[in-house]
Amino acid sequence: MYLDYYGLSEAPFSITPDPRFVYLSERHRDGLAHLLYGAGQGGAGGFVQLTGEVGTGKTTLCRLLLEQLPEKTRVALILNPRMSPVELLESICQELGIEHGEHGGSIKALTDRLNAFLLKAHADGERVVVIIDEAQNLAVDALEQVRLLTNLETATQKLMQIILLGQPELRDLLDREDLRQLAQRITARYPLTPLDAEESEAYVRHRLHVAGSERVPFTRLALRALHKRSGGVPRLINVIADRALVAGYARSLDNISERVVHEAADEALLGGQSRRRRLRYALVASLLLALAAAAWYWPRTPQPAAEAIASVPVAPAESPQQAFARLLAEASDLDAGAWRRYADLWGITIDEESLARLADCAGPANHPLNCFRANGPLTRIAALDRPVMLRLRREGGFASALLTALDEQRVTLFLGGESVTVPRGLLELHWLGDYRVLWRGTADLPPRLRLGDSGPGVLWLRERLALAEVQQGLDGKADALDLFDADLDRRLRRLQLRLGLLADGIAGPETQMALASYDPQGPRLARP
Question: 181, 174 in Cβ contact below 8 A?
């Protein structure tokens, strides 16, 4: 009911795991990289363990993992692990399509059929991955059966990879003395933590942007309160934010304040925190009344009349915040001056046609630069370490602003023909998280490079990949081979995992842009 009022095309804070609304923080990217690494190990064996509190995004990462699994991967997904060892084996066989029929109920028969299936999959070059969600609910004997499954192996490698997803209680469960053998086989552990304050704000902005919003109806203090009351747990952010939007609509509020968020959180968190909050309010109110009464009855000493002092009025200097507001009002969506300044940083001159194509990220025209469009927080831009073009909302539309400098507290923007340095919080009030970044390729660089390709584009890929590997602490090597071979595919997938990209072994626009950021040539973000 609040969609039209806040200019939304759909509900932005539904708790259903719609992939269009997925926002990956740095911790979520690392967690997904661990899962992809574990699933891609094939016969390396060992368990991968991902733990996190309720609502932190484990199921979302599991869905993303299933969408990005390598080709020729067979998956058994167990969503309800409250079962006996026999039932667990039957469920795994059912998920993998193994007929067990009359063999149901016999652990030996089920294990034999599973082993035969794994050997055939290995001969066919297939990987088999078992994912157990809510693994903290596994019984001890079922966990022991899971451990025994890793004994299915050839002379050189394991035949099955097992991924355990669960709440923090899973870590406590695996610390038991009688499960030490299983704990020793866990080769990768990753705790998924809630979002920090900046990530929570970026999360809210991202979901509003996907839902069609052209502005953020939450004030800065409201966003901080939303993080504080939710603890950075995405599911709680969704619940509280949705209730706050309903309350804002019911009261005809254009901007949702900190107070509305606290009231929404009190309703969502079912009373306990609400009662404590009312008690704090009552105590503060009593103290203020006492202070007011004391001030009223305190003896007052008459003050002499101040002498009138003639002074010459001095016009106050314009503050950075005032300059930002003025420039934002004067700027335009397609700010030719900002885009030309951006091109100047790269040492090129662009004509009107090239300028329009750059602004639309429509591909190169009469210049060697590429443009990539993305969405993410300032922390991701800081890691990229390149100037980027931001699209800021303002009254009546949008404006382009070039981000040239960034630190933990401030940003410097080229906006409306001038440079201005303002607090990061002020920028984020007008920014929904989308940005465009320029990067330099070569004239003959194809849009995508993959296994089996050849030519100058592959040489460019090898050079940039070697630079990136060195800066990532890996053994980088650049050679003159212009063939995209299996070794290059492996190295590219490894780096994609480390960067939190889709590890598909394809050097598409996002991977090319990420690799180009390691090039020492070109402009870098300065410090304000």
Answer: no
Q: Rounded to an integer, what distance in angstroms lies between the CA atom of residue 42 and that of residue 127?
A: 5
For residues 52 and 177, state if they share a domain.
yes
Q: Are 217 and 248 in contact (CB under 8 A)?
A: yes
Tokens of 302: 């008459």
* Residue 122 sits in the same domain as residue 251: no
Q: Which domain, by its residues, includes 201?
A: 196-272
Quickly list DSSP for 469-496: HHHTTS-----S--B--HHHHHHHHHHH
What gap in Å lies between CA 424 and CA 162, rounded to an integer? 43
Helix, strand, coil shares of the chain, percent, nearest 5, are: 45, 15, 35
d(CA 61, CA 165): 10
Say if CB 422 and CB 410 are below 8 A apart.
Answer: yes
Q: Where are the alpha helices (DSSP H) in 306-455?
A: 320-330, 336-345, 352-359, 378-384, 424-429
Please write the tens of the pLDDT for every residue from 65-102: 888 887 788 899 998 888 888 888 888 988 888 886 65
Contact 51, 171 (CB under 8 A): yes
Q: What is the pLDDT of residues 276-289, one digit of tens each?
A: 555 555 555 556 55
Higher pLDDT, 46 or 180: 180
CATH number at residue 45: 3.40.50.300
Cross-sheet strand order for the sheet of 186-192: 73-78, 127-132, 161-166, 47-52, 186-192
Cα separation, 513 vs 438, whole angstroms: 8
Return the pLDDT at 442: 80
CATH number for the domain harbouring residue 248: 1.10.8.60
**464 and 343 together in one domain:** no
- Rounded to whole angstroms, the Cα distance separating 374 from 510 reads 9
Number of domains into which the chain is organized: 4
* Predicted pLDDT of residue 502: 74
Are 47 and 162 in the same domain?
yes
- Residue 205 sits in the same domain as residue 184: no
Say if residue 62 is in the same domain as residue 208: no
The share of the chain scoring above pLDDT 70, in percent, equals 86
Contacts of 123 (CB under 8 A, 6+ apart): none
Q: What is the full DSSP assignment across 399-435?
A: EEEEEEEE-SSEEEEEETTEEEEEEHHHHHHTEEEEE
- 519 vs 506: which has the higher pLDDT: 506
Within-domain flag for 249: yes
